[in-house]
């Protein structure tokens, strides 16, 4: 190796920072922690753990008193940085969860810890749960936050707005302190944010500007919300992963998003499956992606009522994508002729191996290519379906068991199946509430 190459390698190694994670895990223990005494094992393990940077509690259920005891031990660890607390409130009342979260958040603040990761996914705490996070997310302990995962929490519009305001406040105060919030990952799927929640979060995303991964599938967002998000994405040029699966773009939203995609050249994964972009939307996205986006690995446009002309345009757009491993166009309306057209195009550009299954295609060759992209959408751009926020107070609501894993279900159908399952689960919860 030449001296110059050796010097460059040495410099790169010197600049490399290794994030050492010393994790204490109680994952999947099924512990029912109600009283202080129930948490004795966890408290003792936390107190004697040296250099504790991560605590994993998912698969247990933590009450207020137990959370307070755990918090007391956690407050002794200023090095703590990763709260991996998904699925840890199963069977808890909505009134319990904010109090438990406040105890844990206060402990992090008291320790002077700098939180890098906060994962509270699969805890159905609704808008009231965000109350328990406000102090933490506005504190100095959140200035270093890089990953925020709040998937399947039932936030609703109200919770989405509160969360957005917390992020804005944190960004403002951290910037004034000279250490601006530089969030990289934001996950908030299946939260029924709808347009108002999405628009509020878009303001936060636009202010932050450092996001690399955004996942907001199944949130009942349609063109007004999509438009606000697209504007925010433009201000986050480092975006690598973008997942808006199972929202409602329509042709209007797809056109707005396409204009922004042109500028997001670092994208590696685009998931716009089940977004009703239809043929004209597919053409707009294809045109946006065609000139560049050499880093693209996955392009998912399944379940969008795309017909052969749109699918063909998409196929042509991936010619220069050397890193592409998946093009998903399943569950559209190509018909046999369209399927052959797509396959022929991809074969010509040596990309046939990236094409996902088309076994769920819903088209036929005699379908008319003319279409009305607004036929299933109301005048304000919203879908003709009821998207209610479940905001009942004081009863048992946490039951992540209804979440499906998608085994045996094609990727294009998973999101719609999950939506149905969510509705069934809501009805079951309403029965509990009654």
Automatic annotation (TrEMBL):
Region (Disordered), start-end ranges: 356-434
InterPro entries: Leu-rich_rpt (IPR001611), LRR_dom_sf (IPR032675), RanGap (IPR027038)
Source domain of life: Eukaryota
Biased composition (Polar residues): 411-422
A Pfam family annotated for this UniProt entry: LRR_6
Biased composition (Acidic residues): 362-396
Gene Ontology molecular-function annotations: GTPase activator activity
Keywords: GTPase activation, Leucine-rich repeat, Nucleus, Repeat
Subcellular location: Nucleus
Keyword Nucleus assigned: yes
One cellular component (GO) term of this entry: nucleus
Keyword Repeat: yes
Name of the protein in question: Ran GTPase activating protein 1
Highest classification ranks of the organism: Eukaryota, Metazoa, Spiralia, Lophotrochozoa, Mollusca
């Amino acid at each position: 190796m030449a001296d110059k190459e050796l010097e460059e390698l040495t410099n790169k190694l010197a600049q490399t920072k290794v994030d050492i994670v010393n994790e204490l895990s109680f994952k999947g223990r099924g512990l029912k922690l109600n009283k202080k005494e129930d948490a004795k094992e966890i408290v003792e393990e936390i107190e004697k753990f040296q250099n504790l940077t991560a605590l994993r509690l998912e698969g247990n259920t933590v009450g207020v008193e137990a959370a307070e005891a755990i918090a007391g031990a956690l407050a002794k660890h200023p090095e703590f940085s990763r709260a991996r607390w998904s699925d840890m409130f199963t069977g808890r009342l909505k009134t319990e969860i904010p109090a438990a979260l406040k105890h844990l958040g206060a402990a992090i603040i008291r320790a002077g810890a700098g939180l890098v990761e906060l994962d509270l996914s699969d805890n159905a705490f609704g808008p009231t749960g965000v109350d328990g996070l406000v102090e933490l997310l506005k504190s100095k302990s959140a200035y270093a936050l890089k990953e925020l995962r709040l998937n399947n929490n039932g936030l609703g519009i109200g919770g989405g707005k509160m969360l957005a305001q917390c992020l804005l406040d944190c960004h403002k105060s951290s910037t004034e302190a000279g250490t601006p919030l530089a969030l990289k990952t934001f996950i908030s799927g299946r939260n029924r944010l709808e347009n108002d929640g999405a628009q509020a979060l878009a303001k936060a995303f636009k202010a932050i500007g450092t996001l690399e991964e955004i996942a907001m599938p199944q949130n009942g967002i349609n063109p007004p919300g999509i438009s606000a998000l697209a504007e925010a994405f433009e201000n986050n040029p480092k975006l690598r992963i973008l997942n808006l699966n199972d929202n409602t773009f329509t042709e209007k939203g797809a056109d707005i998003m396409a204009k922004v995609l042109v500028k997001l050249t670092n994208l590696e994964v685009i998931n716009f499956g089940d977004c009703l972009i239809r043929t004209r939307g597919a053409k707009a996205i294809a045109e946006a992606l065609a000139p560049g986006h050499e880093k693209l690995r996955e392009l998912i446009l399944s379940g969008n009522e795309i017909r052969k002309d749109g699918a063909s345009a998409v196929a042509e757009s991936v010619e220069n994508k050397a890193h592409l491993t998946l093009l998903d166009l399943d569950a559209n309306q190509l018909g046999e002729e369209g399927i052959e057209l797509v396959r022929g195009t991809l074969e010509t550009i040596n990309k046939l191996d990236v094409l996902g299954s088309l076994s769920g295609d819903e088209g036929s060759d005699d379908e008319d290519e003319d279409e009305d992209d607004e036929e299933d959408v109301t005048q304000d751009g919203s879908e003709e379906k009821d998207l209610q926020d479940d905001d009942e107070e004081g009863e048992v609501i946490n039951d992540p068991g209804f979440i499906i894993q998608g085994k045996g279900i094609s990727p294009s159908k998973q999101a719609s199946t999950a939506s149905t399952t969510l509705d069934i689960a809501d009805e079951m919860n309403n029965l509990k509430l009654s």
